[in-house]
Amino acid sequence: MERLDKVLANLGYGTRKEVKVLVKKGAVEINGVQAKNSDVKVDTNEDIIKVNGETINYRKFIYLMMNKPAGVVSATFDNYDETVIDLLDPEEQIFEPFPVGRLDKDTVGLLLLTNDGELNHKLISPKYHVDKVYYAEIDKPVDDKDVKCFEKGIVLDDGYKTMPGKLEILKATEHGSEVYVTIQEGKFHQVKRMFESLGKKVVFLKRISFGGIILDEDLEEGQYREISEDELLVLKKEKNV
Ligand code: URA
């Protein structure tokens, strides 16, 4: 059970004070009866709440997929840079979502945003072995020796040995390479540092899949959409891909 004013404020009907005014005006109905006080408790699963005659669609959690553009930081607040939250409309910001893990400022691609702390924890903990797939462009030729190094795990500049990763070569020339990288951890600059340890540099990085869900290519960089129920089941590992 939750307070009516909290439920309506969370849905963007105004501040608690504004919701109180709305209730006093007689604009809110609970199960067909006009609400008199904004502090009454409601059952958001059972009660039918109407505002100005329209039934509200209550939900606690929001799950968004964004195609993150370069130049924007994966944080909820930053003193200097634009954040991924700044790219959201107020109707999504009201749910106070946060990014699930981080992509570097210059990395583009799939970033999930949610206010579901439990799912966030499961998705970012290496314990749960959540696959993250990246498309990367590398400044040098990449070969089978590099694939083997990824398979074994790579020692980074700080001495940390990564979990095994998968490297697939799409194209390798003297001038550079295109690869897919699959890892299950999310250490700071991990993909870039794995290649650095092999003497190579990542010149472009895009995440294309996370936890079994794939970046919707209809999303331009900077655009986002809610994930579907099927995608949510995949993320929660309640549905196989
Ligand atoms: N690895 C990186 O180096 N950067 C990212 O943004 C994500 C993974």
Summary keywords:
Structural Genomics Hypothetical 15.5 Kd Protein In mrcA-pckA Intergenic Region, Chain A; Alpha-Beta Plaits; nine-stranded mixed beta sheet; 241 residues; binds uracil; alpha+beta
Structural class by secondary-structure content: alpha+beta
Biggest sheet architecture: 9 strands, mixed
Provide mean pLDDT, rounded. Answer: 95
Heteromolecules bound? uracil
Low-confidence stretches: none
CATH class wording of the largest domain? Alpha Beta
Tell me the CATH topology of the largest domain.
Alpha-Beta Plaits
Number of spatially distinct domains: 3
Percent strand? 25-35%
Order of helices and strands: EHHEEEEEEHEEHEHEEHEEEH
CATH architecture type of the largest domain: 2-Layer Sandwich
Q: Give the tally of β-strands.
A: 15
Estimate the helix proportion, in percent. Answer: 10-25%
Distance between the termini: 36 Å
Number of helices: 7
Based on Cα principal axes, name the global outline.
elongated
The named CATH superfamily of the largest domain: Alpha-L RNA-binding motif
| Rg measurement, Å | 23 Å
Description:
With 241 residues, the protein is α+β, with helices and mostly antiparallel strands. It has 3 domains: 2-55, Structural Genomics Hypothetical 15.5 Kd Protein In mrcA-pckA Intergenic Region, Chain A (Roll); 63-115 and 216-239, Alpha-Beta Plaits; 131-210, Alpha-L RNA-binding motif (Alpha-Beta Plaits), CATH 3.30.70.1560. It is built from 7 helices and 15 strands. Strands 7, 8, 9, 10, 11, 12, 13, 14 and 15 form a 9-stranded mixed sheet that branches. A 4-stranded antiparallel sheet has the order 3-2-5-6, with no helix packed on it. A hairpin with a 2-residue loop joins β13 and β14. α1 crosses α2. The longest helix has 9 residues, at 16-24. The chain is elongated and about 75 Å long. It starts with a strand and ends in a 6-residue tail after the last helix. The site of uracil has 8 residues, from α6. It comes from Clostridium cellulovorans (strain ATCC 35296 / DSM 3052 / OCM 3 / 743B). GO terms for molecular function: RNA binding; rRNA pseudouridine synthase activity. This is Pseudouridine synthase. Residues 2-60 form the RNA-binding S4 domain. Its EC number is 5.4.99.-.
